[in-house]
Amino acid sequence: MAEARKSMIKFKPKKFKVGDIIKVDFIVIHPMDTGLKKNKKTGEVIPAKFIDNITFSLDGKAFTTMKVWETVSTNPYFSVNMKVPGKGKITVDYTDNTGEKNSKSKKLKPKG
Amino acid sequence: MKRRNFIKSICAATAVAAVASPSALLAKEAPKGGNLLSYDAAVAAITGGKAVTDSDKIKLTVPEIAENGAVVPVKINVESPMTEADHVKAIHVLSTKNGNARCADVMLTPMNAKGYFATRVKLGGTQDVVALVELSDGSFLRASKPVKVTIGGCG
Description:
A: Immunoglobulin-like, B: Immunoglobulin-like, six-stranded mixed sheet, three-stranded antiparallel sheet, 3 helices, 9 strands
């Protein structure tokens, strides 16, 4: 079962109409460990643990996919644009290299 | 003479194997020592050896000096109509000197409406950040910018 991981989808601007091009930001709390660092107390290598695949979907249809490596910063931030076609639900599905799977959704509510 | 030919054939075979499987280079097996891949090898794997043109259609924004190499903001804007017939297919964010030159590959579609992507990356030291852009017609464009890093961000 997937760990509940803190993440956030943000639309910018917050208020928009059908046909507007908005920014869709996705931020997630994740260590993005490279596998190159050592635990300073134990001397053990901290194993690589990083988000490797992300899919942005609108009502189940993918519109942006990403392959990500450990070179992306800890607690990563990803931002793309989207033209608002109407009401719907944005879902971000993401996995990491250890097989952890997570998902976050946000309703798309254009005004007018 | 026979032994020399034998050794030559091993080297050739290794070279062919290395070049012939770019997907293996991009494969995502959990790394023990990291997904090491040089910038040149990463570009070759992405483009398959196709020509890459430097283009001012790509607006690449990075800080000139990054105090903290662990969090370097990268913003990319590619001029594109983003129609079905003419759009940015993928933006590949790379660095020239990290052990793993790849940062992110972003596959866009016309619904994105703009050839835009932003993220934050780690840079192990002073080097260039590169936006390698694949268009829907299969051509590749590139923009690169140097970033001075005072404290490296990978270790």
